[in-house]
Amino acid sequence: MMRVLTLGLMQGDPSLADGATILSAIADSRSANEQFQGLKLALLCWHNLTKTEKHAIQSAVTDNPYIQPGTDRQPLADKLLALPVS
Q1: Closest residue by Cα to residue 45 from 81, 18, 9, 79
Q2: Which of 49, 65, 71, 77 maximizes the CB count within 10 A of its CB?
Q3: Is the pLDDT of residue 84 over 90?
């Protein structure tokens, strides 16, 4: 619950967000909602992330078995994978 609350606070104030937290929410989420919020935050903060963080996030999305077609996370994941890394 606290992790999702933190992600929500970061969405409200993106200056609080960092790549490690976003990556953890996507790759090591404890719930589908946490992962969804992590994907939303990644999209919101994409332009502020480093190239390394962007690669790591895209890899976490690609390698994640829980992001499946038909889930609410799939459209967000597709948008993230389509973003440029440079």
Answers
A1: 18
A2: 77
A3: yes
Amino acid, single-letter form, for residue 34 = E
Is the confidence at residue 49, as pLDDT, over 90?
Answer: yes
User: In this structure, how many other beta carbons lie within 10 angstroms of the beta carbon of residue 63?
Assistant: 9
Q: How far is C-alpha 72 from the chain's CA centre?
A: 13
Taking the C-alpha atoms of residue 59 and residue 4, their distance in angstroms, rounded to an integer, is 21
* Per-residue pLDDT at 1: 82
The tokens for 81 are 């994978």
Secondary structure, 3-state, the chain: CHHHHHHHHHHHCHHHCCHHHHHHHHHCCCCHHHHHHHHHHHHHHHHHCCHHHHHHHHHHHHHCCCCCCCCCHHHHHHHHHHCCCC
